Amino acid sequence: MGVLNTKGLEKLGITNKTKAIEGGTIGRFNDTNPNGFLAENAFVPKLENVINLSVEKIVENILLAEKEYLKNGITTIQDGLTKKKEWDILKYIAEKKLFTADIVSYIDIKEKNILNQNSEYVKKYNNNLKIGGYKIILDGSPQGKTAWISKPYQNEKEYRGYGTYEDLEVEKYIHEANEDNMQILAHCNGDEASEQFIRIIEKEKNDSRLRPVMIHAQLVRKDQLLRMKKDNILPSFFVTHIYYWGDIHVDNLGERAYNISPVKTACDLGINYTFHQDTPVIYPNLLETVEVAVNRKTKSGKVLGKEERITIYEALKAITINSAYQYFEENEKGSIREGKKADFVVLSNNPLMLNNKEDIKKIEVLETIKNGKTVYKK
């Protein structure tokens, strides 16, 4: 979502005569004039009409961003929704052999024809870049009240957010992913979006070896996690939501907010779970993510779901060996073992030896090593 000024709305051609957009929101004043607020399908697809940078500037920015990831001890980076324009830039950087980290790209499934001309990148690294699979977005965000949930938001009579696609469209896309033998990642914040994804995976008899991933899985329920385990659907939790938006979630969701990002439930069920930051939504600080998963405190200090706390060791697994599994790279990355890639991080303290779990966020990354070579040193 975003907010545009009058000039921005003019650039997008949005006026009081602009019709409502399915799967999106155009904020309006009482007189129906647009107030500048845009969300989901009314915002994201239109961004490139507002922001125009040269290819050279975009490449420079990407490489600067990569340095921030390396500074935070991250040696494998996901590009979570790659369209044709972005793919061309990533491929250009790879061809110039400028990447240091490994980049896993997930192609917008609506632009899956990208694979036809780029077979040398599909499921294998070429100059540190590979296409890992497809991405589909099924709803919005709980803090913006655009996540698709099964029961109305707090203090709303009927409003439950909304989905991005009808079932038939999702069935078509998931069927295509199966036919192409490609992993699919689905953005699902609300439990109704999660239900749509799980239900269609079940209907399509998805090949569990493809390891489909539910991105965010904020409001996924235990009964849904049980079905996910059966079909090997992996939840990747944006668990740091608890700190940044936890207090807002209580306002928007009431008691349901305490079950957000149910990591302990997934862990106890033996499900492979991972964490992510959705950068640039928040900074790519994995130690902060570990701290939030362990303590589950909001900005106001409220504990949001004490029973969903996990141990430091369980949190570390989410960002190492579990993440490697999600990328089909568990035999090459994710743990320290002879024969695996020499991708390491040196920390200022051992997270497992802390007396106070709140001190996790005080730990610093001192050095990042990629393929046996130091790529960052404090």
Number of domains: 2
Order of helices and strands: EHEEHEHEEHEHEHEHHEHHHEEE
Termini, distance in Å? Answer: 35 Å
Quickly name the level 1 CATH class of the largest domain. Alpha Beta
Summarize this entry quickly.
By secondary structure, this protein is an alpha/beta fold. The chain is 30% helix and 18% strand.
Structure description:
This protein has helices spanning 6-12, 55-71, 84-95, 167-179, 191-203, 222-230, 241-253, 263-268, 286-295, 312-318, 321-326, and strands at residues 2-3, 24-28, 34-40, 76-82, 102-108, 129-137, 183-188, 213-216, 234-237, 274-275, 344-347, 365-370, 373-377. The protein is an alpha/beta fold. It has two domains: 2-49, no CATH class; 55-336, Alpha-Beta Barrel (TIM Barrel), CATH 3.20.20.140. The strands form three sheets. It has a seven-stranded parallel sheet with strand order 4-5-6-7-8-9-10. The protein is globular, with a radius of gyration of 21 Å. The mean pLDDT is 95.
Annotate the secondary structure layout.
Blueprint: E1 2-3, H1 6-12, E2 24-28, E3 34-40, H2 55-71, E4 76-82, H3 84-95, E5 102-108, E6 129-137, H4 167-179, E7 183-188, H5 191-203, E8 213-216, H6 222-230, E9 234-237, H7 241-253, H8 263-268, E10 274-275, H9 286-295, H10 312-318, H11 321-326, E11 344-347, E12 365-370, E13 373-377
